[in-house]
């Protein structure tokens, strides 16, 4: 748990210099893990500063007797800034670190680390729509070796 707290502090330190914008969001995902495909719902909180964005994600997925809960810290960096300067589309790449809990006739807990990519579409100055993909490789889990997710998020900046 201490490692997660320290990692959160390090990741959010990207946002301490200069102006930053906080945001709150909702997310729906399509997950694929351990031969299970499942939709999920989640909440997000994050900070955007320049090309960097740091996000805390809490997600919950349920498929019959199978549930997966995750708490993921994600740091993204905007790419192709000069080419997309006047476009509402903002592509990004980043990395993710999180804790996972899988319940299916027993509880399996572990950690995940991985990469993510996607594109945000700016609807206006306060709202964006984000379509992303995240891959996590897990450790200390008996039944899940990796997690793939296709995510659709709506963010409100304040």
UniProtKB/TrEMBL annotation:
Q: Which GO terms describe its molecular function?
A: porin activity
Pfam hit, one: Opacity
Q: Where is the Porin opacity type domain?
A: 86-150
Family annotation (InterPro entries): OMP/PagP_B-barrel, Porin_opacity
State the GO CC annotations.
cell outer membrane
What's the family?
A: Belongs to the opacity porin family.
Query: This protein is called what?
Result: Porin opacity type domain-containing protein
Query: What organism is the protein native to?
Result: uncultured Sulfurovum sp
